[in-house]
Design a protein that fits this description.
six-stranded antiparallel beta barrel, alpha+beta, 169 residues, 6 strands, single chain, 4 helices, 2 domains
Amino acid sequence: MRALMFVTLILSVNSVTATAQAANTTSPPSAQIRDVTACLQLMEAPVRLACFDRSAATLKAATEDHDMVVIDRAKIRSLQRTRPSSPEKDGSTAGPRKFSEAKGQITSARSRGDGQWSFSLNDGSSWVTIEAPASPPRGGDDVHVRRAALGSFFANINGQRAVRVHPTD
């Protein structure tokens, strides 16, 4: 049983490391990951196993409390295909810009005042209108979002004229 936990823990560490590399992050690993990798330096098997047990419990608690999320490379790639890359502060993009269009239904919408609306689609993406739509978006409305010029986006809500939108996530 302990050997299975050890293998699972090592695979989790490798998954987290691959996720960080795939996301091109430069931030240092979290305390939980540092604790797990520190266990690898211990030579005595009982001490190393106890270290892994403590670290695994900490990782498990962090994921159950939603303080840490571990996703694999395939999930990252699927998200990159379905969601647009948001521009970073320096104008570059965080990842490849594979998004070209999305079709779906609005799951929720709310007014932001001054004619702007924020809405979420059934694929999990969230958008904000930059200009007022012809009629307010409502839950269940069909939406077609597509890439426009210079990194902007257009959305047709229920077949109305296109309005400029930008992603919020």
